[in-house]
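Customer escalation, tier 2.

The customer says the design service returned an amino acid string that "doesn't look like it belongs to this structure." They asked us to rerun it and document both sides in this ticket. The original structure tokens are below, unchanged.
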């Protein structure tokens, strides 16, 4: 024990030299595993016994045991709420926050523009998942694209980049791309001797490769680099049962720009923290179920 004190209710708090996790030892326990200390319990009055884990009724023991997990949820909500409060959250209307580390100098799209439509198609709100996905899939695979944006209270038409360029924003650990030497910020310009314009081009070529080695050209810091990637087979389980074979290289993409964020109030931050916690619980249960 490095530090120890007893509070006014008789509870001893302590920090030990090996702080690997924590535990609670209740009054009347023989050890940290809550084994019953028979000798200590026999010397207690009925009123004192009621204040122990072994002498309390079932409902009181249940509430006591539940307090730990409940506080974990409360702490998670508080942490996420604090993040939302200080960092804000992406606005539901797609808007340009800041551009990725790519050369967008030839386009007229600017930071702060609210994107109302691209190529004549109205931009769905970001929280309309299915509509937004259909919108992205329907966009032409070419550059530049015609953007209708709100700028300074006016609607203007400007040229802009493809919404999802072949820009590496993430790499799956020990994936084909990771082991080949790709880095965050790389722009993939060619794959299997075919030009790559949008991120979806990568998926098409990789899925059609059947696992054969693919030559890849990447632009990094103004220099063109050549790599060879061998897609890896992944058999993914389906909701209705069975498996479907996919080929993956482990590259993660994203928008051509960081979405603009908007500040939120305490109530909205609290709601967002709770929603994020619920989402993590749901994904954890789903993961365990599928395993």
């Amino acid at each position: 024990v490095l530090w120890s004190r007893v509070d006014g209710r008789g509870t001893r708090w302590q920090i030990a030299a090996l702080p690997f996790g924590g535990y609670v030892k209740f009054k009347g326990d023989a050890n940290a595993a809550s084994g019953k200390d028979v000798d200590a319990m026999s010397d207690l009055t009925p009123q004192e016994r009621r204040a122990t884990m072994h002498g309390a009724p079932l409902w009181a023991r249940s509430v006591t045991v539940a307090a730990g997990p409940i506080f974990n949820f409360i702490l998670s909500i508080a942490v996420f709420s604090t993040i939302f409060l200080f960092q804000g959250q992406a606005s539901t209307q797609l808007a340009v926050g800041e551009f990725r580390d790519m050369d967008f100098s030839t386009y007229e799209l600017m930071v702060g523009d609210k994107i109302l439509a691209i190529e004549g198609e109205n931009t769905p709100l970001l929280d309309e998942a299915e509509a937004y996905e259909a919108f992205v899939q329907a966009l032409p695979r070419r550059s530049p694209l015609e953007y209708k944006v709100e700028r300074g209270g006016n609607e203007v038409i400007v040229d802009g980049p493809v919404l999802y360029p072949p820009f590496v924003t993430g790499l799956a650990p020990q994936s084909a791309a990771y082991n080949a030497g790709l880095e965050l910020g790389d722009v993939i310009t060619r794959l299997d001797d075919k030009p790559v314009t949008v991120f979806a081009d990568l998926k098409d070529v990789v899925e059609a490769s059947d696992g054969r080695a693919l030559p890849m050209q990447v632009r990094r810091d103004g220099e063109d680099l050549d790599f060879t990637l061998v897609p890896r087979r992944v058999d993914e389980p389906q909701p209705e049962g069975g498996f479907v074979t996919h080929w993956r290289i482990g590259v993660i993409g994203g928008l051509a720009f960081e979405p603009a964020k908007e500040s939120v109030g305490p109530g909205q931050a609290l709601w967002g923290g709770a929603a994020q916690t619920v989402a993590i619980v749901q994904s954890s249960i789903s993961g365990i179920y599928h395993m």
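Tier 2 assessment: The sequence is consistent with the input. The helical segments are 38-42, 46-50, 58-87, 129-138, 176-180, 199-207, 266-290. The radius of gyration is 28 Å. Sent an explanation to the customer and offered a walkthrough call.
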